[in-house]
Amino acid sequence: MRMPAPIRLRELIRTIRTARTQAEEREMIQKECAAIRSSFREEDNTYRCRNVAKLLYMHMLGYPAHFGQLECLKLIASQKFTDKRIGYLGAMLLLDERQDVHLLMTNCIKNDLNHSTQYVQGLALCTLGCMGSSEMCRDLAGEVEKLLKTSNSYLRKKAALCAVHVIRKVPELMEMFLPATKNLLNEKNHGVLHTSVVLLTEMCERSPDMLAHFRKNEKLVPQLVRILKNLIMSGYSPEHDVSGISDPFLQVRILRLLRILGRNDDDSSEAMNDILAQVATNTETSKNVGNAILYETVLTIMDIKSESGLRVLAINILGRFLLNNDKNIRYVALTSLLKTVQTDHNAVQRHRSTIVDCLKDLDVSIKRRAMELSFALVNGNNIRGMMKELLYFLDSCEPEFKADCASGIFLAAEKYAPSKRWHIDTIMRVLTTAGSYVRDDAVPNLIQLITNSVEMHAYTVQRLYKAILGDYSQQPLVQVAAWCIGEYGDLLVSGQCEEEEPIQVTEDEVLDILESVLISNMSTSVTRGYALTAIMKLSTRFTCTVNRIKKVVSIYGSSIDVELQQRAVEYNALFKKYDHMRSALLERMPVMEKVTTNGPTEIVQTNGETEPAPLETKPPPSGPQPTSQANDLLDLLGGNDITPVIPTAPTSKPASAGGELLDLLGDINLTGAPAAAPAPASVPQISQPPFLLDGLSSQPLFNDIATGIPSITAYSKNGLKIEFTFERSNTNPSVTVITIQASNSTELDMTDFVFQAAVPKTFQLQLLSPSSSIVPAFNTGTITQVIKVLNPQKQQLRMRIKLTYNHKGSAMQDLAEVNNFPPQSWQ
Amino acid sequence: MIPLGTNAYTTPVRAGHCATPLVFIDLCSSLLREIRFILIQNRAGKTRLAKWYMQFDDDEKQKLIEEVHAVVTVRDAKHTNFVEFRNFKIIYRRYAGLYFCICVDVNDNNLAYLEAIHNFVEVLNEYFHNVCELDLVFNFYKVYTVVDEMFLAGEIRETSQTKVLKQLLMLQSLE
């Protein structure tokens, strides 16, 4: 019995559109798919085309269509144009190179490339050029090359781009197309010219030899200059005109090719100087088209070895763009200016006020670029004005900017502060307006800064006190304030302040605020630690409230928080057994010398502490968070040596943590275990600015932990298993902390175990030191190590890991990729 | 040694950066200056055209479509027509209820691609005589033909509207 004729495509589309629910649609589709399947089984040529078309429509809606793959092949092999056309479309949609049947197309395409009808040849070229696999390209490159030399311009265009695809897939075949390129630029046909330029661009970009060849032997630059000139000078040409400009797309492509030819080559650059100036000055700027050309021109000028007059011209064009009403153009200008600000700093400075105005733009990406540019333009002369604008921006911008803006302000202030008072005021302003967005590492830096401004201590502590009096919820602010009050509380109560009206405050009031911080639910563990230590320090600076302090300290001796408990217990001990040492221990901090002013700060302690403590080596803090920097047997009170320090947590320059030694994965953003790791016990290390008694517990990593993220097994091979557990902070969601645990199920230990990781460039990685280097056998123990990942753009987390260890007498090494991170770890 | 990259990761090497930060390179093609895909979607997220110039799995494609839709529909007239998206950039423009999106490399000329989108839409308009969304639905295979006349191998191929329309009419006569 003959099946009824399959319904037409239009019918199907109409029917599907009447479906009111997803379920109804699915039902219709399934019914139709079943009908199509039976129709395919009948091997009916008449309706195959119609059925495949319907299948493709359903595929576009998101339904599976793989059972139609072979049918597409049959359609391609048919003689009818309509069949071929749908067949090739199907091939492009369903038959990418991962499919097994992909290669079966090769023969059909080969035949069609030699077909008598140009439209069939065109279809074949198109399909090959869009998704041909490397094997297919290899087989058919010869045919493509032939077509590149044909006189039919319709085919030449397609062949040129098809050649581009072939070269991309199989770069070795580039040579083969070289002869055909000889006369490409002599064409009159714009379409052919355009695609030829694309082909030449591809060849020059891929191979430096080709590039040299085209520069010297083919004299490409003069030819391109000539063509460009003709385009600009020629009159109205209706075919390629866009808003009065002659073939802007071709102009843009030529400019791009010129850029590649002129890069790093004086002669070529000189040859194109005039034409670039001409385009830059003569192009009509009222519409987007003209601006597109101008933009490409600017990019070219900046990239080649242009003379300075031309560069200034380019930057002025960008400056004009900034004033344009069209936000697209402003955006594009800011992006380019950001790229050139290092090399052409002075020229960009002239447009500073326009750039600063862009901080108030409505579009988020424009604001971001304006912010980055503003920071790049800050210098000693404009710091006051710029800072005003930037602080205003910090006040009003979206939360996603605040952390970066705050860090930028701190950096700029550090470099260019006109006076210490101004500097402290600026810091205060940032802490009070965006205090909760300030990065973790800012706190120690600020504290160090304050310590070094000796004459400002009274002023600083007074301002900080006033700031937290009203509101102690912003943790970084509170931490800095607590530290300062602990250090300089005596100045606070004595009412000495030169910079402003001194306030009257009693010791009890100061202790009140510190105790409130201790009790408050808003205070994190770290903050509480600061507060407790501050209270302790005040015991030597205050005179009337020592008993109160003793009481507070003893209460916390039984705190649930292990950190606090430990501190309190030890401070208690100080009161009881070591009271004679207390004042010496709690002495004012010495001025810290900064070794480098930019980037990671290396702190060298200049005053050794007093004698080795009867308080034995403090055990590293227990609890979930491992210690922060390199090695934390922070035997602070032992050893008077001045020890060079492992740089503090750099957020912008991760390469410092000994990563250069570990050049395994090439120039990747890699932080391996710091090189000093092997010998922890002998050398007392001080990683953060030395808080005398804070050294016991270095900063725990997180203020708030976002729990509930599932852990994953990142690696499991040869008996070695590595699991990742995740923690994220609510206050700083771009940081993810990964704790790895390595275990060994074989019967022999794995020794000298080193774990390294690399992440994509948009992330930053900090690898803290491992708990040990031996993974004991039979799963009797694990190595734990902490990785901190900064992911400001909330991109999908990916990581490559490298493991090296010794096992059963031989050295083992393995590379792996981890890409099963749960979405909650990075979203 | 585990081979460097698999086909599954098609994140391109960025032009001009000599240090390759991301090791997930598709060794088959160094994707400099190329269109990754072209999408036409309506506001509800239905795809009216999806032309891919790079290899993706079916579920990757689905995910990309959803992500692009999410990113593009929240933007309004206050925003620019360019969105940074993963390691690429999306250049889009809204015409009535349809979003025309082209995904390109971050270093490409945004303004030029904006013009390319407009060029393409004008051709569609001519070809379908005041095109509307339904035209694109019922004639989806013809829309692909238009795309293939104007773009190939991820590059702009023919920019002259008159020429493209002439070809399209020729092709139509063969049916």
TrEMBL record, chain A:
The keyword Nucleus does not apply. Residues 602-632 are annotated as: Disordered. Pfam families: Adaptin_N (PF01602), Alpha_adaptinC2 (PF02883). One of its GO terms (biological process) is Golgi to lysosome transport. Gene3D superfamilies: 2.60.40.1230, Leucine-rich Repeat Variant (1.25.10.10). Keywords: Coated pit, Cytoplasm, Cytoplasmic vesicle, Golgi apparatus, Membrane, Protein transport, Transport. SMART domains: Alpha_adaptinC2 (SM00809). Signal peptide: none annotated. It is found in: Cytoplasm, Perinuclear region; Cytoplasmic vesicle, Clathrin-coated vesicle membrane; Golgi apparatus; Membrane, Coated pit. The keyword Transport applies. It is a peripheral membrane protein. GO terms for molecular function: clathrin adaptor activity; GTP-dependent protein binding; kinesin binding; small GTPase binding. InterPro entries: Adaptor_Complx_Large_Subunit (IPR050840), AP1_complex_gsu (IPR017107), ARM-like (IPR011989), ARM-type_fold (IPR016024), Clathrin/coatomer_adapt-like_N (IPR002553), Clathrin_a/b/g-adaptin_app_Ig (IPR008152), Clathrin_app_Ig-like_sf (IPR013041), GAE_dom (IPR008153). Belongs to the adaptor complexes large subunit family. This is AP-1 complex subunit gamma.
TrEMBL record, chain B:
One of its GO terms (cellular component) is AP-2 adaptor complex. PROSITE patterns: CLAT_ADAPTOR_S. The keyword tRNA-binding does not apply. Its main location: membrane. InterPro entries: AP_complex_ssu (IPR016635), AP_mu_sigma_su (IPR022775), APS2 (IPR027156), Clathrin_sm-chain_CS (IPR000804), Longin-like_dom_sf (IPR011012). It is a peripheral membrane protein. It holds the Pfam family Clat_adaptor_s. The keyword Cell membrane applies. One of its GO terms (molecular function) is clathrin adaptor activity. Gene3D superfamilies: 3.30.450.60. Belongs to the adaptor complexes small subunit family. This is AP complex subunit sigma. It comes from Equus caballus.
